[in-house]
What does this fold into?
Amino acid sequence: QVQLLESGGGLAQPGGSLRLSCVASGSVFGITAMGWYRQAPGKQRELVALITTGSSPNYADSVKGRFTISRDNAGNTVHLLMNSLKPEDTAVYYCNVRVFLRPDYWGQGTQVTVSS
It folds into this structure.
């Protein structure tokens, strides 16, 4: 099993910044990718950013140039730096971890609200 602990999030003004972090613990051997999804009220969960071992990060078109995903050298922590936030970025953000030959793991979610 893999446990995920998310931190960060909260309230930001339009144009502001927030940083999300997610630490994976437990059976972390074999992690192939770590990333973030988000779900706004009344909408489907969508990919925000994903970093796969040995590959360049993938970003949703809506966040390219504003958000940056990174992973620490140990490979079990992923960060999402969100700059130039917009009201439409308001959502619950979920950490996602993919492990070889296992179902995806999900964090509990952290609220991000962008409002003046």
The chain has a mean pLDDT of 95. The two ends are 40 Å apart (CA to CA).
